[in-house]
Amino acid sequence: xxxxxxxxxxxxxxxxxxxxxxxxxxxxxxxxxxxxxxxxxxxxxxxxxxxxxxxxxxxxxxxxxxxxxxxxxxxxxxxxxxxxxxxxxxxxxxxxxxxxxxxxxxxxxxxxxxxxxxxxxxxxxxxxxxxxxxxxxxxxxxxxxxxxxxxxxxxxxxxxxxxxxxxxxxxxxxxxxxxxxxxxxxxxxxxxxxxxxxxxxxxxxxxxxxxxxxxxxxxxxxxxxxxxxxxxxxxxxxxxxxxxxxxxxxxxxxxxxxxxxxxxxxxxxxxxxxxxxxxxxxxxx
Amino acid sequence: xxxxxxxxxxxxxxxxxxxxxxxxxxxxxxxxxxxxxxxxxxxxxxxxxxxxxxxxxxxxxxxxxxxxxxxxxxxxxxxxxxxxxxxxxxxxxxxxxxxxxxxxxxxxxxxxxxxxxxxxxxxxxxxxxxxxxxxxxxxxxxxxxxxxxxxxxxxxxxxxxxxxxxxxxxxxxxxxxxxxxxxxxxxxxxxxxxxxxxxxxxxxxxxxxxxxxxxxxxxxxxxxxxxxxxxxxxxxxxxxxxxxxxxxxxxxxxxxxxxxxxxxxxxx
Lengths: 285, 268
Known about the structure:
The complex is a heterodimer. By secondary structure, chain A is an all-alpha fold. Chain A has helices at residues 18-31, 33-48, 57-76, 87-109, 111-115, 128-154, 166-190, 193-208, 220-226, 230-244, 248-251, 253-277, and one strand at residues 3-7.
């Protein structure tokens, strides 16, 4: 028989090194993976339950957005091909990533405080909450990715060996979203304003990422500044896999190094914060 | 008798802030901001297996805080709680997902409690049978009445077979027939040697069902013992309290509030 003991230990994480905290959080993800993926499915079900078209909205919303952006930039402003890639393709490659990152960061940041009351006494760690919300946004992304690849295939950008780097960039995206969500979901439970900050940053982020504008058009120093944004790396990586036909993460190895250092720092901060506050998050509701 | 729940010197502090800025300063700076309020002030008691304990006390005496702490939902600020086995809390707001149907909620809830797919398949008919919601089981929970919600919550919680059951006012919204069904189920639990904590404003239900009573006053144990001994005292206290003038009642409450804000955990 299990013997639970709820002893108040103040700030266990203070005594924990960064590596230890990260490993602890990552282990929790692995151990509760079965649960995470099941809960993700219920989350998708629950969000689409009220509409008549249900799951179809996961496709309709991005399609409308994409059509509008293409109409404004591609049709009215008559954007030329980008390095021989039709503008629509080029836009689509960036947009599908955005269609995942945007809702994943938005819903991820409010994942804990909106669900904690419901799942306060459950047999899984709180760090799994942002993860299953992330996963519930990743499923539609797989779906969109599949459609986009079909479109590319049929309209003149066929599959190449460079597609092999796609799983890598997908993994990198998941890691980025996971580590940011770990921070924002914990903080927004304590200070609700964090949720507002995330929302406004996300509104800007689409314009600060090379989704609608062409990265190499601007002066070098502007490009360098824009590259601070890790989404830049991921979007360019996606495009390299689809059409640029180079191994982006090897050719831009300095950028790869920057990206993973950033992930490490975010994960570190997120794990320490989360472990420090998680036992008391319920008190902030 | 074997101990099943041991609560030792448990205190629960809440912070009352008069401004939002105090809240953030309290979080960031080491100095303490805001007014302290102790919902529980160093409370200790032990429960044995098979005990059915009723929590009694006026509003704000700490009954719900204590039940949340025993159920492991809220961590205590100071002190220790040891619980042998799995606990389940049944409250009116039993944490159901409003968008999902009753059936989906059963699956989700069991999943989160760590049951496997096969186990859930076995439990599901039993839960549905107990909740007795008819065709509403496949309707979204938001269309349920509060009684139906509490029935579903109760059915899930009792079917997963916990060792310690905490029931917080959950029976007061159900109708008489369902309350009787629940009491039967709880009697069954009692025979199996499970520990049950029961909070209800119905003194009748309390007397009918509980063996022991824990009387809480301003976050401390006022009296703990056999229900036949504690309940009459509580009832006469209630009578006395009701007979007091508005002013006296207010003084009584203020005295308590003062105790709760000036409590220091070193005194335990």
